[in-house]
Amino acid sequence: MLTWMQDLPNFTAYGTPTYFIYLLVALLPLGIGLYFGKRFSWYEALVSFVFIFLMFDGQSYQQAFSLVAYIIYQTVIVISYFHYRQKQNASAIFYLAVFLSLLPIIIVKFSPAMVGHNSLLGFLGISYLTFRAAGTIIETRDGVVKDLNWWKFVRFMAFMPTITSGPIDRYRRFAKDYQQVPSREKYLDLVAKAVPYLFIGFVYEFVIDYFFGQLWYPFMVKQALLSAPHLSWWVVGVAYTYAGHLYFNFAGYSFFAVAISYLMGVQTPINFNKPFLAKNIKEFWNRWHMTLSFWFRDYIFMRFVFMATKKKWFKNRNVLSSVAYMLNMMVMGFWHGVTWYYILYGFMHGLALVVNDWWLRYKRKHFKIKSTKWTKFVAGFITFNFVVLSFLVFCGFLDKLWFVVPGHH
Amino acid sequence: MTNKQKLWSIFGPVLIAAGLALVVFAIPWKSNNSPATLQKAAVSLSPNVFKNRAIKVQALADKKANYVPFFGSSEFNRMDRYYPATMAAKYHHYRPFMFGSRGTQSLPQLFNMTMMAPQMKNKKAVFVISPQWFVKKGVMPDAFRYYNGTYANLVWLAQANPKSPYDRYTAKRLGELTSDSGTVASYAYKIERGEQLNAFERANIKVRIALLAHEDNLFSGFFLKDNYQKRIQPREKLLPKRYDYDRLYAQAVKAHAKATNNNDLGVLNSFYDQRIKHAKHIAGSQKHFSYLKSPEYADLQVVLNQLKKTNTNVVFMITPVNTKWEQKTGLDMQMYYQTAKKIKFQLQAQGFNHIIDYSHAGSKPGFMNDTIHIGWAGWVDFDHRIAPFLDNPQPAPHYHMNEAFLSTEWQNLTPTATNLQQFKAQHLK
């Protein structure tokens, strides 16, 4: 059954330089249209369909079915809730809608830990789509989504440039861009940004990350595993090269996704803003995987703080924010996957945010340290190295080092 | 700025750069590497020599230089003074062109050979087989992708015959190992199903091969690891002027004893210090290793078929393991001998009769460089056995292939005497 789908070539999004040739040629008519003030919706839908299809055909074709089923499922929930919300606003229904929307990802993330293999429901990008759907439900409850139907929602969910790995957009922002055509001047500004973004992406993804991801990181891992299960200096190398690999790979990808969105006349928010220059961990999360951390900030951290304040759960404001930080980061840890290292990663960052807040208060009270180049450097240095350490936990290498029994070479 | 100027300021630089890049790659650059570059490439063991074409084709086509391809894996990186390339430079007429690093098992070698098939036609070659290749899952996808680029894949696809069971098997493996994505995998699956590639697909392959060939001609002479200057040439001087096997052998045993005097395993001192001294959990760590069942047997079969196609006269070597070391790790030596037996059965049943079986040689003094790699006296003996074969004319080989060796039955056959006898009776005439 469906062998034809297995045999078609599969193209991972932005996987090779050639991919961009196909993609840009396909998008050219769209760009010309936008330049002349027209948005060819049907053509855009066609191109998007073809390229999404190419991401999920071939040997991973089961994922295509999971994707379609998932989008239908989420559309039903979101649209039903939207209609309900026009008339009523009971909390229980809202929580039910959010729970149903999160259910697939909960199953997918817990499956490996519970039943030992990946869930069939999963597909590449499910986490990112979950954020979009759940975010839309929350925005609907807040009453800021006024205009929604199934077609608009599907276009938002399946927006091709960002479908597999973000950045995570919000429906309200996206819809505004999508419903109108940018002026010629505005569009040219977008294009003028998109082109250098693409080339920065090329340098990150295909040049720098080649060294980090293909040469240095695997080399360090190999050396470090020679003395498994004991720590060696190579583990330090693993940590730094992985940090480089993760950043250049993901930031490169994000540049591509943003640039392609711009060419399609949609201002997808940027995802990275020189994260390794952050002076403290809070600033780091304002610069690293920004759309994810802002999503968590708005929909988990802030909601929790509001609710706890309203219901007077905590007497002390600082305790409240500490609990909120921990909750926020632990959820993020679980979202990455139910393994000890993702959860520890979330815990480390939660704790770091708490300690950071405490230190800022303590410093203000007890010392008069002037901010100089030197103090900034020290702060940046500590932050960077803490982040690298947390990435070492995150990358799962330690799991391999300590707990995986070495098999045949 | 008018919109026209703005457009030009955005796209002008890109268009000019793209135009220049296209011109550079469309120019059919001639590859002409100097003899010194070829010499360096022959012992560089660099992946860019392995996965590209220009250098090796030029080297093997060079009648005067007399390069002979040596296929193998990690043992080729054990370059003491008795290393085949050093010995050949000192005493013999041929020059080994070494293809082998950790992970270059049968399948990467097949793609390597396919790229230089015309140059291997009716020539000789050496093929070193490690029983360690024959693990349950066969070659690791990462290793395969590291030594095997798009260029080699496309060259293989261009000559693949969807009617041949060998090519269909290879296509299946290629699809699996390239992680199923891109045109290469989809073309490979087509071949696996026994369908011809259509005109468009053939044209696509042709254009891409042409561009990659130009890139190869331009760049592959750079970034070669300079083993020749560092590890071959200086050691040539350490060898006695006149060739005398017994003397060389005795000298190698003696030099080996000196180079391994910080341990009682017969492992090179530096190797011992770095890899063994501080390692825990060695005892019993290989007790459960088995090389008896593996897709590698079928992978080896497609290599043999390729050698038959090019009518290459090959001498095989089956590598030894350090017995003292394996006593510690608990490797089942009977299993090791059985693996060698299974490999030999597959070779001899099809007329590949030049086999140097070192599987029992791992306890000879001075024979091993470290834990699982031959060296020193081992290299002296190896050289002694291959040199007459390579330097003197040999009768043409007569290979007769049998598809039964592609089957999962063979891949998973435990090579007891009865099982082999039965397999022979059922499948081999």
From TrEMBL, chain A:
O-acyltransferase that catalyzes D-alanylation of both teichoic acid and lipoteichoic acid (LTA). D-alanylation of LTA plays an important role in modulating the properties of the cell wall in Gram-positive bacteria, influencing the net charge of the cell wall. Catalyzes D-alanylation from DltC carrier protein. Pathway: Cell wall biogenesis; lipoteichoic acid biosynthesis. Belongs to the membrane-bound acyltransferase family. It is a multi-pass membrane protein. One of its GO terms (biological process) is lipoteichoic acid biosynthetic process. Its EC number is 2.3.1.-. Its main location: membrane. NCBIfam families: LTA_dltB (TIGR04091). The chain crosses the membrane at residues 12-34, 40-57, 64-84, 90-108, 120-138, 190-212, 250-268, 288-306, 342-360, 381-403. Keywords: Acyltransferase, Cell membrane, Membrane, Transferase, Transmembrane, Transmembrane helix. This is Teichoic acid D-alanyltransferase. It is found in: Cell membrane. The keyword Nuclease does not apply. The keyword Membrane applies. One of its GO terms (molecular function) is acyltransferase activity. One of its GO terms (cellular component) is plasma membrane.
TrEMBL record, chain B:
GO terms for biological process: lipoteichoic acid biosynthetic process. PANTHER family: PROTEIN DLTD. InterPro entries: DltD, LTA_DltD. NCBIfam families: LTA_DltD. This is Protein DltD. It comes from Limosilactobacillus ingluviei DSM 15946. Keywords: Cell membrane, Membrane, Transmembrane, Transmembrane helix. Pathway: Cell wall biogenesis; lipoteichoic acid biosynthesis. GO terms for cellular component: plasma membrane. It comes from the Bacteria. Belongs to the DltD family. The chain crosses the membrane at residues 7-29.
